[in-house]
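In response to the reviewer comment on reproducibility (Comment 2.3), we provide here a single inverse folding case reported in full, input and output, so that an independent group could reproduce the run without further information from us. The structure tokens appear first.
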């Protein structure tokens, strides 16, 4: 496990923010959960579960949820949210998921995690190991066009970005063009089934009209359904 998980220091603030934020509650979660589809009776792995917002939705939809996060504080918050309804543990996804057997889950969900990971292809391969044959992986990440508009430079630039988000949250994430994200997915043995550039959920217009207008014109995230 990482000695200093990135989100641990501001986990509580992140939970408060993500519960009803435009980008999380009214944009990424609806898009990812729509791609996941019907999970009733399925075993679902929540990779980088954070404060349990996706896990709670998956449990409510009838899934048996297992999950992990590198941040002990995030896992504590997630357990408080879902109780005994999900099996959650502290685990750095840069390491093999040794606590899961081959073909252990039907679906894996990895929302806004992959761009923080250094060993992305090994992680994607490990997820291919633990997802059963015929199962699915749904992931989301910042849209490369959004990164380009925000950071400047060239669209095809690749590299680590270090920034401060919200109220002093230090973050580090990887930037690369869409073709490189898809190449890594393919290298790990996954096949693209659907690519979604989300539109704002209807609820965003009432809660966050300015952001809804912005994200109605250009994509902020991209979500991939993989088989």
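Designed residues, in position order:
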């Amino acid at each position: 496990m990482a000695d200093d998980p990135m989100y641990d220091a501001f986990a509580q603030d992140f939970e408060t923010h993500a519960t009803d934020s435009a980008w999380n509650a009214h944009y990424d979660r609806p898009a990812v959960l729509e791609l996941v589809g019907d999970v009733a009776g399925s075993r679902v792995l929540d990779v980088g579960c954070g404060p349990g917002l996706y896990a709670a939705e998956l449990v409510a939809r009838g899934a048996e949820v297992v999950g992990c996060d590198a941040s002990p504080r995030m896992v504590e918050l997630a357990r408080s949210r879902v109780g005994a309804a999900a099996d959650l543990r502290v685990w750095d996804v840069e390491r093999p998921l040794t606590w899961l057997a081959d073909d252990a889950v039907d679906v894996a969900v990895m929302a806004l995690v992959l761009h923080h990971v250094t060993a992305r292809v090994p992680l994607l391969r490990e997820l291919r190991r633990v997802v059963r044959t015929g199962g699915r992986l749904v992931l989301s990440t910042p849209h490369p066009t959004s990164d380009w508009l925000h950071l400047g430079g060239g669209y095809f630039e690749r590299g680590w970005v270090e920034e401060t988000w919200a109220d002093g949250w230090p973050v580090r994430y990887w930037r690369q063009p869409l073709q490189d994200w898809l190449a890594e997915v393919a290298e790990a043995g996954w096949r693209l089934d659907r690519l979604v550039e989300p539109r704002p959920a209807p609820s965003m217009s009432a809660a966050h009209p300015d952001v809804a207008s912005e994200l109605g014109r250009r994509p902020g995230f991209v979500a991939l359904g993989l088989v």
